[in-house]
Amino acid sequence: MYLVVLGIGGKHLTSGDSESQPLAPARSVLSFGATVAAFIISYAALMSDYTNYMRADVASYLGLLLPTASVQLIGAAFAASLSSNPSWMAGYEAGGPGGLVDAILSPSKGFGKFLTVLLALTQPATDNLGDSIQGPTLYSFSISSQVVLPFSARVPRYAFSIAGTGILIPLAIVGSTRFEETLVDFLGLVGYWSTTFIGVVAVEHVVFRRGDWAAYDISDWNTPKKLPPGIAAIGACVCPFGLIVPCMDQVWFTGPIARTTGDIGFEVGLVLSGLLYIPFRALEKRVFRK
After folding, report:
1. What is the C-alpha to C-alpha distance for residues 16 and 84, in angstroms, rounded to an integer?
2. Transmembrane stretches, by residue range (predicted)?
3. Which residue among 124, 155, 177 closes a domain?
């Protein structure tokens, strides 16, 4: 799909009107970067659901990074060329990203309309960048529900997927009139949590497991008595929000620090959660011996 878009519209790509478009301030760049990072980094909590049959030394993240980065770069190239292509600008103003795609594909007439309709039909199962996300998310939702509520393991997983879809539909209806703003706000919130999660997992692996995959006894995964209680991890994820909140820059809230620096809640959460986890986990191991 995006290769066709690039093939048809590629010859009209420009560097934009740099003279009339001032450079974005560092504050805006940081905030935008945090949103983009939040989109991709949120998969960190899901990847174990889909890579457990792969070797530990396989760089599975490349399978997510390469296609996502390429699509985002294509989108950035066309966005930078909007000011030089009035028809593209009109399409974007009328229909957002979908209108832009329709305007780019308009020279191909019927075939372009077909691809635009195809993109619209696949939208419920994808995000605005075209990457499949709802299916994996609902699958992980069903697994996570059974982990958090062990007694629900007897319930078929598709029941949780149906329940999750029931939750998504009304939220999607409410957010449909403000899709882009709603998506950005949601990604920001997900990003803050994801970074603290990654900070904890990374420190556990590097510091306490010495980077050794053999240090994990996966046979204990469903034996709570042999697993750490998780108090250190929860504390290291929650405590950083005391500093993350002042560093947030969202449509609905801008913290006092973010007014000067832009959104650095992402970076602060990543570093602070990792630093806090070291003493928290050391104390937890001493008290619980596991």
Report:
1. 6
2. 29-46, 58-80, 158-177, 189-208, 229-252
3. 177
Best CA proximity match to 85, nearest among 8, 185, 13, 141: 13
**Angle, to 10 degrees, between the axis of helix 231-238 and the axis of helix 265-288?**
160
Question: Do 171 and 230 sit in the same domain of this protein?
Answer: no
- Spatial distance between the Cα atoms of 51 and 179, rounded to a whole number of angstroms: 31
Which residue range forms the structural domain that includes residue 160? 133-177
- The CA radius of gyration of the chain, in Å to the nearest whole number, is 22
Joined together, the tokens standing for residue 288 give 């619980």
| Assigned token pair, 45 | 């909590």
Q: What's the total number of domains in the chain?
A: 2
Give tens-digit pLDDT for 230-257: 999 999 999 999 999 998 887 778 899 9
Angle, nearest 10°, between helix axes 134-148 and 157-175? 130
Same domain, 167 and 240: no
Strand, helix or coil at 253? coil
pTM beyond 0.85:
no
187 lies in some domain: yes
Shared domain for 215 and 268, answered yes or no, is yes
Instruction: Judge whether 258 and 264 are in contact, CB under 8 Å.
Output: yes
pLDDT in tens, 125-173: 444 434 445 566 777 788 888 878 888 888 888 888 888 888 877 877 7
- Please tell me whether residues 170 and 247 are part of one structural domain: no
Asked if 274 and 200 count as a contact pair (C-beta separation under 8 A), the reply is yes
Residues 165 and 190 in one domain: no
Helix axes 231-238, 179-203, angle to 10 degrees: 130
Residues 209 and 274 reside in one and the same domain: yes
